[in-house]
C-alpha cells in the first residue's frame, strides 16, 4: 500500500527523458519509434498545459465534445479545475522533436485516486451552476466510485492517469502509449502499488490495454440516464462505453510487473 502522505522526493527528471538509456527495456520499442521526449512538468509549464488542454481536449475528447463543454460557460470552470489538479498532480509532458521541437505534443496528468474522490465530485457537481459541467462531474463521480477498485485492491490510494491527451496533429504516432508507460513507471518510483485509468473514449481504452492495464469495469453511455430516463450524453461511435482499466504495479514478490504486458 502506498504512503497516503506526500510521496518521497525522487530525482526522476532524467529517468523520464525518452533518450535516457536507463529506462526499462519494456519502453525501448516505443522510445525508438515515438517522435518525442518525455519530461516532468514544472509549475512554469502550467499556462502552456492549460492552453494545450483548451486546444486539444476541450474540442476533441468525445465525452467533452458531446456535452459541449468547450462553451465558455463550461470550459473556463473546467480549465480552473484542471489548474487545481496540476498543483497536486504528477504530470508528464511529451515534447516534440524536429519540426515540433520545444512544443508540447502530449500530456499525462496523474494523481492519487482515493476512495472518497467520488463523493467529493458529487459535492462539487451540486455546487456547479453550469449544466454541462455538472453532468460531467456527475459522470466522473460514477466512474470514480462504481468500480470499487480501492476495495478490490485493498488499498486507500491508487495512482490514476487522470488526463491523457495527444496534440491533434501528432496523433497515431504512439505518443499516448509512450506517456502511459512512463506514467506507470513514475507510479512505481513514487511507491504506488496499483494504478488505474478511467477511459471515456475508445482510443484511450486501447492505449490502456496496450500499456498492460486490464479492463475492470465498463458502462455503456446509453445507460447513463437522467430523471426522465433519457441518455445524458451521446458520444459518436466508436466511443460507446466508459471503461475503467487497472493493474497491480508489482508482483506479490515485490518485483515490477512488465508495463508492456498488454502487447
Automatic annotation (TrEMBL):
InterPro entries: Acyl_CoA_acyltransferase
Segments for region (Disordered): 1-28
Biased composition (Basic and acidic residues): 12-22
GO molecular-function term, one example from the UniProt record: N-acetyltransferase activity
PANTHER family referenced in this protein's UniProt entry, alphabetically: AT07410P-RELATED, N-ACETYLTRANSFERASE-RELATED
Protein name: N-acetyltransferase domain-containing protein
Native organism: Anopheles minimus
